[in-house]
Automatic annotation (TrEMBL):
<dbReference type="Pfam" id="PF19883">
    <property type="entry name" value="DUF6356"/>
</dbReference>
<dbReference type="InterPro" id="IPR045936">
    <property type="entry name" value="DUF6356"/>
</dbReference>
<feature type="transmembrane region" description="Helical">
    <location>
        <begin position="20"/>
        <end position="48"/>
    </location>
</feature>
<keyword id="KW-1133">Transmembrane helix</keyword>
<keyword id="KW-0812">Transmembrane</keyword>
<protein>
    <submittedName>
        <fullName>DUF6356 family protein</fullName>
    </submittedName>
</protein>
<keyword id="KW-0472">Membrane</keyword>
Length: 81
């Protein structure tokens, strides 16, 4: 049970639990930041006009490059988290 909860998924991606966790925290923080920029943009349209879109494109490129550089890219899902 513990293996399934904590280690199976990171190991299937060729990562340790800590590596996977650190990457997920970074990606999540960037997503939260982009979401906050969207909320501010909704109130003041002149602010953060490209922040969310740039963040999404950057995260997509990041995940695609990690998948391509993996030992077994076919084992990776279309998303990393």
């Amino acid at each position: 049970m513990l293996g399934r909860l904590f280690w199976d998924h990171p190991q299937s991606l060729g990562m340790s639990w800590a590596e996977h966790g650190a990457g997920a925290v970074v990606i999540g923080a960037r997503m939260v930041g982009a979401g906050l920029a969207c909320v501010i943009h909704a109130a003041v349209p002149a602010l953060f006009t490209q922040t969310a879109g740039r963040t999404i494109m950057s995260l997509h490129d990041h995940m695609i490059s990690r998948k391509a550089g993996a030992a077994n890219p076919n084992a990776w899902p279309d998303y990393e988290i």
